[in-house]
Amino acid sequence: MITAEVILAASEGANPLIPNWWEILVTGVAFAVLLYVVKKFIAPAFEKSYTDRVEAIEGGIEKAEEAQAEANALLEQYKAQLSEARTEANSIRETAREEGAQILADLKAKAAEESARITAQAQVQIESERVAAVNSLRIEVGTLATSLAGKIVGEALDDDARSNRVVERFLSDLENQQNAGVSN
């Protein structure tokens, strides 16, 4: 479509590719005013916004680095406490083992002492019972030997001295025969 201006300009002999000088002037003034407004008001607002964002980001990064450093320090502290707790637990466990071994050794020693005491007491009791049995047997054998000798001889051997001599001689002969039998 051809406009009226193009037709008017073609009739005047002006070149449509070259603008008019007043259009250039108006456009230049409008561009200068726009450039002034952008430079005076808009650019500083953008710059301030950009600076605030940069500071906020850098502050956030610094805070994150501080938080990371604090977290690492707490982690190291936790690891140290954990290691210390493990060492203490091992120490307590080892002490308990040693105490258990000591208690066991003490109980074994007490049991051995008690066993030795009971054995010694039993030996003493056995010896005293053996002596009592031997004495009882001597008296019984003596009585039997006296009554047997009295029946053989035909007279009563009620005399204590005589009966004791007979019993002693009989027992010594019996022991000699036993010792001779064991020797062979």
From TrEMBL:
Positions of transmembrane segments: 20-38
Keyword hit for Transmembrane: yes
Signal peptide range in chain numbering: none
Localization in the cell: Cell membrane
Molecular-function annotations in GO: proton-transporting ATP synthase activity, rotational mechanism; proton-transporting ATPase activity, rotational mechanism
Keywords, sorted A to Z: ATP synthesis, Cell membrane, CF(0), Coiled coil, Hydrogen ion transport, Ion transport, Membrane, Transmembrane, Transmembrane helix, Transport
Protein name: ATP synthase subunit b
Organism: Arthrobacter alpinus
Lineage: Bacteria, Bacillati, Actinomycetota, Actinomycetes, Micrococcales
Gene: atpF
